[in-house]
Amino acid sequence: MAEPKTKVNDASVEDFLGSIENETRQKDGFELLELYKRVTGLEPKMWGSSIVGFGMYHYRSGRSSQEGDWPLAAFSPRKQSLTLYVDPQNFPDLLKDLGKHTTSVACLYIKKLDDIDLKALERLVSASFKQAKEDYT
């Protein structure tokens, strides 16, 4: 069984966000940090070198023998966009009020926070976090 590459570590979340060269992405990263802290009530941890996560659960894949730990809520201010791990297919009603975004099976992508309704985003992150706690803890 392959060992998961993305693991929680003791790196500084603030140092990571502060090292982002794109000023808008850095500002948005710090704003997301505060939103996630408010919604989850948890302190952030770095997962791998670029994911900011809150809480943790243990998973076992039903399709393979892979298992590991993953945050209950997480985001990453990647070069192309802000990536939020929120399982968007579970919340289509919340996405309609969000603003400019794209999705994949398990992620929400936002170019910049100025493109979206932050109250709608907070409702989405809150619903996703609540669902993850119910499903995995």
Run of helices and strands: EHHEEEEEEHEEH
Q: How many helical elements?
A: 4
Spatial sequence of strands, sheet with the most strands? 1-2-3-6-7-9-8
Beta-strand portion reads 15-25%
Rough outline: globular
Detail the poorly predicted runs: none
Task: Indicate the structural class.
Answer: alpha+beta
- The CATH architecture term is Alpha-Beta Complex
**Main sheet?**
7 strands, antiparallel
Overall pLDDT, averaged?
93
CATH fold type? Aspartate Aminotransferase, domain 1
Fraction of residues in helices? 25-40%
Could you tell me the radius of gyration in angstroms?
Answer: 15 Å
| Level-1 CATH class name | Alpha Beta
Indicate how many domains the architecture comprises.
Answer: 1
Q: Would you count the extended β strands for me?
A: 9
